[in-house]
Amino acid sequence: MTMTAMTMKMMRQTNSIAAWGLLGFFAVSLLTFSVDAGAHGERAQLASMRMRTLHWFDISVSPTRAKVGDTIVMTGKFIPSELWPEQLPSITDTVFLNIGTPGPKFIRVYSEVNGVPMIRSTAFEQSKVYEFKIVVRARIPGRYHIHPLLNVKDAGTLVGKGTWVEIEPSATAAAFTNEVTTLTGDTVDLESVGLKAVVGWHLVWIAMGVAFLVYWLTKPELFIPRYMRVRNLGPEQANAVITKRDFLVGGFFFTATMVLILGGYLWAEHRYPVTIPLQTGKVKVEGAPIPKGPLSVAVENANYELAGRSLTMRMNLTNHGDQPLSIKEFITANIRFLNGPVSGARVMEGEELVAGDSLHPSVSVIAPGQSIDVVLRAEDSLWETQRMTGLIYDPDSRFAGLLFYEDARGGRYYQEVGGPILPKFF
Ligand SMILES: [Cu+2]
Fold it and tell me: Which CATH number applies to 47-177?
């Protein structure tokens, strides 16, 4: 078998594998969408990535019912994990705070982290608390699942917990406007500014492209006959397949393209004489220390029980304070495991991924001065429905989460706990 034949065969095989893969992908997507039309991929992210990248908490969206043109505010906090996966580009490099919505259903009016406006990218430190605020205005009616998210350079998008928001048409049913005053003092509506130019240029380039294709595709000989002719004529005669007319038409398209680009540039310069480039620098934002309180935690080991849908952590807790500390909550991968009923916790109306009575510590209250071994079990079907079972396929099996506890005066503390994890199959 010659080299070419082998390659051809391999290509055919690769193609068929790719084709089957693609078919399978579509089938699975169809199935997924028909089963759960609401979700949009947040569960598809690796379990380990959801557990060990960002701990989002205290996320609140208000109001969750609004009209077109109304302002909606999302607030919350996050802590970049100390156990950030080694293979994932770090959040300490470049990151941008954003909001995840299904299409341009909102406009982002303002965003900040720890009081610093987040118009540009920034960098975050691991194990620091960051409090964010994102202000959006509703643009198109509908019911949307919106998430806070961080775009980490080279790592991709890491999403926080989603909230359903319902947007109704405005009372007057007037079209949505987004007016801003430019630095030169003009007031423009960003919904329509420059739209004619965008449409116009698209039409020009579509016309150019179609004309170019029509010329070449309507020639009597396409690729294979031309290839045969070149082969018959011999390589030194290959130029003969290009006629003088082909040459002229090619030259015309080349010149027209250059003239259009230059013309467009000059026209834009004339139309908008004062412009500044898009800003790309980074801003600096200080992280706040984690309010750990007087509790020190030493994780000994952890198991993930497949059948029991539970994570069991064994840890030594020492209370250095003068107040008893009671364990309240464990958050990982945006899932809240509460020690007690949902009614007793700070839960937002309609909040998702909250499992009441799902955190079972062997000891709930750590007395002042006490140092004790505690077995903490976080157990709920959410492990399964949120596809956290993928944890066991991780070549670097470790977990991380936030442990919340309170003192008798209502002081609220938390810290990150994490470490290696072993799956248990029976
Ligand atoms: Cu969502």
Answer: 2.60.120.570
pLDDT at 61: 96
User: Is the model's pLDDT at 7 over the cut of 80?
Assistant: no
Calpha distance 249→220 (Å, rounded): 16
Q: What is the pLDDT of residues 246-263, one digit of tens each?
A: 999 999 999 999 999 999
Q: How far is the CA of 284 from the centre of ligand 1 (A)?
A: 29
Q: Cβ contacts of residue 108 below 8 Å, gap of 6+? A: 98, 99, 134, 135, 136
Position 26 scores a pLDDT of 52
- The answer to whether residues 52 and 46 touch, using CB atoms and an 8 Å cutoff, is no
User: What 8-state DSSP symbol labels residue 232?
Assistant: H
- Taking every pair of Cα atoms in the chain, the longest distance, rounded to a whole number of angstroms, is 96
pLDDT, averaged across the chain: 88
CB neighbour class for 302 (10 Å; exposed up to 12, middle 13-18, buried from 19): buried
* Domain 295-424, classified CATH 2.60.40.1580, yes or no: yes
Distance 53 CA to ligand 1 centre (A): 18
Ligand 1: centre distance to CA 117 (Å)? 25
Determine the distance separating the centroid of ligand 1 and the alpha carbon of 253, expressed in angstroms. 47
Residues lining ion ligand 1 (Cβ < 5 A) are 42, 145, 162
Selection from 81, 160, 76, 162 nearest residue 124 by Cα = 81
Q: With 50 as the cut, is the pLDDT of residue 33 above it?
A: no
pTM confidence score: 0.81
